[in-house]
Design goal:
Oligomer: heterotrimer
Number of strands of chain B: 16
Structural class of chain B: alpha/beta
Low-confidence stretches of chain C: none
Number of strands of chain C: 5
Chains: A alpha/beta, B alpha/beta, C alpha+beta
CATH architecture of the largest domain in chain B: 3-Layer(aba) Sandwich
Distance between the termini of chain B: 57 Å
Distance between the termini of chain C: 39 Å
Low-confidence stretches of chain B: none
CATH topology of the domain at 32-89 in chain C: Alpha-Beta Plaits
Helix content of chain B: 25-40%
Strand content of chain B: 15-25%
Mean pLDDT of chain C: 94
Strand order of the largest sheet of chain B: 3-2-4-5-7-6-13
Largest sheet of chain B: 7 strands, mixed
Mean pLDDT of chain B: 97
Radius of gyration of chain B: 21 Å
Order of helices and strands of chain C: EEHEEHE
CATH superfamily of the largest domain in chain B: Thiamin diphosphate (ThDP)-binding fold, Pyr/PP domains
Number of helices of chain C: 2
Largest interface: A-B, 48 and 45 residues
Radius of gyration of chain C: 19 Å
Structural class of chain C: alpha+beta
Number of domains of chain B: 2
Shape of chain C: elongated
């Protein structure tokens, strides 16, 4: 069956799950953490019949200080760079134990969760291996807060151009990060997997339905989720959701899906807000001059246009 | 009716043992000289002889990561590696025991780079000797097969739940064709109970594994793991005894050869022990009172058994297959000196490194060692045998 | 002589196998004392849209059932980030400074 045709139970505003969260309160995420919000919504969407694997990072440390855990589903953390490999082992174990009748004969999604450093940098090899091996019940979620926040806001390859971090500081000879954000969804899609999607917590139903779709489709899925970090971005904590809305509405972070190589632009942004509305909320961009912002705007236009063109050239 | 030995390559025999154990998951990455083990396993899976998932991972780091995931999900899990592969696994090797994942890892022991060298010594396994794994060394092909079966039984035992490394000398053991008895499947199934545990990822009974521990819990978690490792010795003895009952072959933590009246004891691990025994026979003919003590169980270190085996000797010549840089001792030499320190009437301990990077270990090497060990010069208690200076 | 207060939380012998943890047990860890201001809801203006419930990073808001058309904040866990107040379409949640 084509990935686009695989049925799944969609959440609507009316059917929004009201039961207990799969991620318990009492976790130690910072005030206004957009990453833990995205995680909470993703887990809530899947319910309880899945297994989670975390990479080392903010979401791992803030949910699992021994002897307490926030995870209400079976959860395993091993190390930083290998969430995809660990999840591969869990997934293959479940498959074979099912086949041998040692587990009930039903699919168990295995969800690997990592940050942008654990995905785009140190975990890229393990992720590529797992996607290429085409595990049937494998979902990889990158929660992208655009730097190594857990270790103190160091730049990663997912840090956007111009952002000041503790290892790409703005200075008299530097505009902050001088490279463009690595395009992880494109790298994931290049593996020819059935499902790749981007999502942002402000668009919560879109986010929650994407992980349901990922779980329904047989074969590996990659979700790239925007995850605002008030602490690392030097932003007011109450703006976590707002920034995750502005980033989409300014075309900086388009919401789209890639189903068997066919592109769907989920949210067409016809009248984008100026990117400055988004950038000005965050201290990490404070040093940027109008000419820097022009450079960023041109890149945003080009990347958004690329997705539009792909969705026209390869429609579902 | 007794089963007759067949001629089979040791690597293949290990793979056959993994099959007899109904292993659920194998995750592996190719590296010489371990490859024959996993090649044969993937054939067994491809031919439907082994109902397992074979995960062809993209690195040894991912091999061990996948094994930890698979074992934590309750599957019987096996992998194999050598040298650089084990070095790349290093980070994961330290995690598996504390998470209590009873993976069985066959190491076809090979020298570590640099310089790159594919041949046998023990530098790979010695680099992870303190990680918390049970470690056994096989001397010959039959041992390699038997210890594979026993490693699952020991590691998965409810009182243990620890990973086990089975060390097979690369090429000099792994690639030899030897007469080996392949046990009957029914007997292995009867000997090896199903892998059952509550410490696993189960959607019916969710738990969290692999948490962050702060200073107020880290020490106790590490100590609890070490206590389990030390106590596993009792289970290992028990499993060896039950194996003898089921299959008739006797295994001990430490083996002795012609040590009753031996004044000088050669202390060995792994396949060179066979050469050492041949050399001892020849030296005995010449009137030397020499014997061999072989360590089969390297971790947990068999302190009491080794002390007993060395009690009557005047001199112990400890053979190491790994050079520790920056200190004049090999790893086994250090352990034995520490073991005997302060003991009344402790034998003199000499420590020799030989057979690095596949350099041939000859009977004459052991004769040289015995001759050197007659010296009273403490300054000469450590030597790299045969180094061309 | 009095023994020093142990630096450890659990004895070695009481350590759970594989130092596992019970699912969802952070509910024993109250994060409410991080807060410097609390959300106060004006129930008159509330339209029961659920955005406070949906967008709370800490899962603080609880549905009060179909009869009670509002969500109640569990202040044991509220860190006072103010996302709920910022996202409320009716602006009926006010962040009020905690008295010290």
């Amino acid at each position: 069956m084509r990935a686009a045709d695989v049925p799944y139970e969609k959440i609507t505003a009316k059917t929004f799950p009201k039961g207990p969260d799969s991620l318990a309160s009492g976790h130690r995420a910072c005030q206004g953490c957009g990453e833990v919000l995205a995680l909470r919504l993703l887990l809530k969407s899947l319910g309880t019949d899945f297994i989670a694997v975390s990479a080392t990072g903010c979401m791992e440390v803030c949910t699992s200080t021994f002897p307490q855990s926030s995870w209400r589903v079976p959860w395993l953390h091993v190390a930083f760079e290998n969430a995809a490999a660990v999840a591969s082992g869990v997934e293959q174990a479940c498959q074979v134990l099912r086949k041998k009748g040692k587990l009930p004969d039903k699919r168990i999604p295995v969800v690997a969760v990592a940050g942008d450093g654990g995905t785009a940098d140190i975990g890229l090899q393990a992720l590529s291996g797992a996607l290429e091996r085409y595990h049937q019940d494998f979902i990889y979620v990158c929660l992208d807060n655009e730097a190594y926040m857990n270790t103190g806001i160091q730049r990663s390859s997912a840090t956007p151009f111009g952002a000041s971090t503790t290892t790409s500081p703005a200075g008299s000879h530097s505009k902050g990060q001088h490279t463009w954000k690595k395009n992880m969804p494109a790298i994931a899609a290049a593996h020819g997997i059935p499902y790749v999607a981007t999502a942002s917590p402000a668009f919560h139903l879109d986010l929650m339905n994407k992980i349901r779709r990922a779980a329904a489709i047989e074969g590996p899925a990659y979700l790239h989720v925007y995850a605002p970090c008030p602490t690392g971005w030097r932003m007011k904590p109450e703006l976590a959701v707002e920034s995750s809305r502005l980033v989409v509405n300014s075309r900086i972070f388009p919401l789209y899906e890639v189903l068997d190589g066919h592109y769907v632009l989920n949210r067409k942004v016809d009248n984008p807000i100026p990117i400055t509305d988004y950038l000005k909320q965050q201290g990490r961009f404070r040093h940027l001059k109008p000419e820097d912002i022009e450079i960023i705007q041109a890149r945003v236009n080009q990347e958004y246009e690329n997705i539009v063109k792909l969705s026209e050239a390869f429609p579902v | 009716m007794a089963v007759k030995p067949i001629g089979i390559e040791v690597s293949l025999a290990v793979a056959e043992a993994v099959k007899l154990c109904d292993t659920d998951v194998v995750a592996a990455y190719p590296i010489t000289p371990q490859t024959h083990i996993v090649e044969h396993l993937s054939e067994l899976v491809a031919d439907g002889e082994l109902n397992a998932a074979y995960i062809p991972v993209e690195s040894e780091h991912s091999a061990m990561s996948s094994c930890i995931g698979s074992s934590a999900a309750g599957a019987r899990t096996f992998t194999a590696t050598s040298s650089q592969g084990l070095a790349l696994m290093n980070e994961m090797i330290y995690i598996a025991p504390v998470l209590r994942t009873p993976i069985v890892l066959a190491v076809a022991n090979r020298a570590l780079s640099a310089p790159i060298n594919i041949w046998n010594d023990h530098s790979d396994i010695m680099s992870v000797r303190d990680a918390g794994w049970i470690a056994v060394f096989a001397e010959n092909g039959q041992e390699a097969l038997d210890l594979t079966i026993m490693s699952f039984r020991i590691g998965e035992h409810p009182a243990v739940r620890l990973p086990v490394s089975l060390n097979i000398d690369g090429f000099t053991l792994s690639h030899f064709i030897e007469p080996i008895i392949i046990p009957e499947k029914e007997k292995v199934t009867a000997f090896l109970p199903p892998n059952v545990t509550d410490l696993k990822l189960d959607i019916a009974k969710p738990i969290s594994i692999g948490l962050l521990a702060n200073p107020e819990t880290y020490t106790e978690i590490r100590k609890a793991t070490d206590d389990i490792l030390l106590a596993s010795k009792d289970t290992i003895v028990e499993v060896f005894a039950e194996f003898k009952k089921a299959f008739g072959r006797e295994y001990n933590l430490v083996e002795t050869y012609r040590t009753e009246d031996a004044e000088i004891i050669l202390l060995t691990m792994g396949s060179i022990s066979e050469t050492a025994m041949t050399a001892v026979d020849e030296m005995r003919e010449a009137g030397e009172k020499v014997g061999v003590v072989r360590i089969r169980l390297w971790r947990p270190f068999p302190v009491a058994e080794l002390k007993a085996a060395l009690a009557k000797a005047k001199t112990v010549a400890v053979i190491d297959r790994h050079m520790v840089m920056g200190v004049p001792n090999g790893p086994v030499g250090l352990e034995v000196k520490s073991l005997l320190y302060g003991a009344p009437n402790a034998p003199k301990v000499f420590n020799y490194v030989l057979g690095l990077g596949g350099r041939d270990v000859k009977r004459s090497d052991f004769k040289t060692i015995v001759a050197r060990s007659k010296s009273n010069d403490v300054q000469k208690s450590f030597e790299i045998v045969g180094v061309y200076e | 002589m009095m023994a020093d207060k142990p630096d450890a939380l659990l004895k070695v012998k009481d350590m759970p196998a594989g130092f596992q943890a019970k699912a969802g047990s952070t509910v024993e860890f109250k994060t409410g004392d991080w807060r410097s201001s609390r959300p106060v809801l004006d129930r008159e203006k509330c339209i029961y849209c659920g955005f406070c419930y949906i967008y709370c990073p800490d899962g603080v808001y609880q549905d009060q059932g179909p009869e009670e058309k509002w969500y109640k904040a569990d202040l044991d866990f509220c860190k006072g980030c103010g996302v709920c107040a910022n996202e409320c379409p009716k602006k009926c949640i006010e962040m009020v400074l905690e008295e010290v």
